Prior knowledge:
The complex is a heterodimer of chains A (150) and B (256). With 150 residues, chain A is α+β, with helices and mostly antiparallel strands. Chain A has one domain (25-35, 47-146). Chain A contains 1 helix and 6 strands; from the N terminus they run αββββββ. Chain A has one helix at 2-21, and strands at 32-35, 106-107, 115-119, 122-127, 130-137, 140-146. Chain A is flat, with a radius of gyration of 21 Å. In chain B, a hairpin with a 2-residue loop joins β7 (167-176) and β8. In chain B, strands 7-8-9-10-11-1-2-3-4-5-6-12 form a 12-stranded mixed beta sheet, with helices on one face. With 256 residues, chain B is an alpha+beta fold. Chain B has one domain: outer membrane lipoprotein receptor (LolB), chain A. The longest helix of chain B has 28 residues, at 2-29. Chain B is built from 3 helices and 13 strands, in the order ααββββββαβββββββ.
Amino acid sequence: MNRTLRMMKLLLALAVALLITVEPALAAGAAVRTGSRSTVNRSGNVNANVNRNANVNRNTNVNRDLNVNRDIDIDVDVDHDHHGYGYGYHHPVGAAIVTAAVIGAILYEPPPTYTVVIVDGVTYYQSGSTWYQPQFNGTTTTYVVVASPR
Amino acid sequence: MKTLSRMKKVFALAMTLVLAGTLSASAAATPAVNSAAIDPAAIGALQKMGTYLRTLSAFQIEAAVQKELVLENGLKVQLEEAVSLVTRRPDRLMLKVSSERKEREFFYDGRQFTLWAPRVNSYATVVAPPTIRELIIKLEEKFGIEMPLVDLFKWGTEESNIKDITVAMELGTAKIGGADCNQYGFRQEGLDWQIWIQNGNYPLPRKLVLTTTTDEARPQHQAVLTWNLAPVFIDKDFTFEPPANAQRIVFAQPAK
């Protein structure tokens, strides 16, 4: 009885250990830590962190390096168009939606389903009760959850 | 008696060693800018190039660019892109950056600036200042946009940071795109860079290599430039005409 109990405890411990060490598969492509700087004459006033802090579903690596061309993820700064161009070897379809209702959250792809709504000449994507505003963050296209514009 | 004098000797030796140690340590701890590391000929060439660039009223460039990203696991990824630029100073600029993954076009007509992403069919337009120089500042400070080849508009102006250079060297000659060039190497904080400047009456930058030194993987950015000093264009080229179904979007702005 004692032995069985010990075996069970051991197995339990092993199972727990495995659970802890097995990492969830990364939903995104490999995260980028640095991009090559492209400008020699930089004033130091380049605003590299426009909206970076409200980043959902990506490795929030707040890198103080003033490199605006550092993409957060190598398949983030890719045109996700309708023709299937662009490198994007992984599209986290649907993965973003669950936590996307927080205003200020940023997606790097449009939500899987949406309606285009134009308000005051500006484009919004409406998905259920969630409103997204497509924005250029630097030159990267992003979709930011905003309050309803109407 | 003998012991005392021996002790004195040992003491003196020890003190000398400590002193020597301290001196050399302090010399290493404060790496003063070594003016011998700055070759005035290299700085002079940079200034001559900058002055010449400022005299150009219009130019067109085709650039073949390679850039690198360093992933979290340290792997370096190389990407290529093509840049086309047409400008008429002081207030017309059209720039196109294209790669397999991403296309962007920049339009500036002295009044408005537009960024156009053709494959995602989206564009954003803002009111722009009256000169390219002021536009560059606005793009960087307000929208976090660093234009490709923006250095061509900064060398020879107050926005050039020659004063930050700590190492400047002549590195010999080379032919780039068939043109005889002099190669120079420079160092500044966070960046080592090399430039190949054409010999003769047109001291144009023909090739640039920027090595980022803030990451141990030292990713590089390279651009090889082809120049046309008599570009042909019409004013319409600098104004963006959105296609009928294009989506107008906005630029993200930093939280105040």
